[in-house]
């Protein structure tokens, strides 16, 4: 019995809820996966899965065994990663899901450097501001803005990213003056579909504004373009806004107020954690972004 292979099959079945999907993800036959599950259940003398014609779910003993198996494979992955870093060039493919704006700007620079260092690595980018389904879309690692990562995933915090209210000079010169957050109610706001309210802080006092405007989008790049063309005020992450603020194409609005940002996480399934390539890419990304914190923070 190959206990490592059996544990990998067990974890994949638990993640997918399906023997067929697990087999596809592991590039094994369904029979091989089924045999692995039988072997690990015989080895532990436990029933790990409830099986019906329509679904597969963990037993109570299976939930406990899953945690142990994940820990074991994490340690195996750490050992393999350390060995590969000394002895072997990184080779393989990695599938990354990312918000569109992040993928087009900051992440693309990281991918470019990573591929130059590791030319035998293939990277697939899935760009969407909606959360990717890691199992169904076969994602190895997803970058997500969230304050509470999914507890069913392994998560690593990458960055805290400030936000800023800004608009083009062409908009501000013809618009009503802005001195307090409530003044935003008389302005055209460019709204991301995930931000129904804008929070502004000053001297530990918080104000919550419901922005109103004639444009809403589910992708930050669209809002950046609209702001640059003078359509209104946008609430943007600093990694997107800072280059335009530095060039004068955008100007900060209500600079005496702080616009709370978001936390960026790398999230992945336990099976992805087994890959030295996934670990190496996450480590490299975190290191690259930590080298220039001004990119992610507000200047005021």
From TrEMBL:
Superkingdom: Bacteria
Record bears the keyword Transcription regulation: yes
Keywords, in A-Z order: DNA-binding, Transcription, Transcription regulation
One GO process term, biological-process aspect: DNA-templated transcription
The keyword GTP-binding is annotated on this UniProt entry: no
Molecular function (Gene Ontology), one example: DNA-binding transcription factor activity
Pfam families from the UniProt entry: HTH_1 (PF00126), LysR_substrate (PF03466)
Residue span, HTH lysR-type domain: 1-59
Family: Belongs to the LysR transcriptional regulatory family.
Annotated protein name in UniProt: LysR family transcriptional regulator
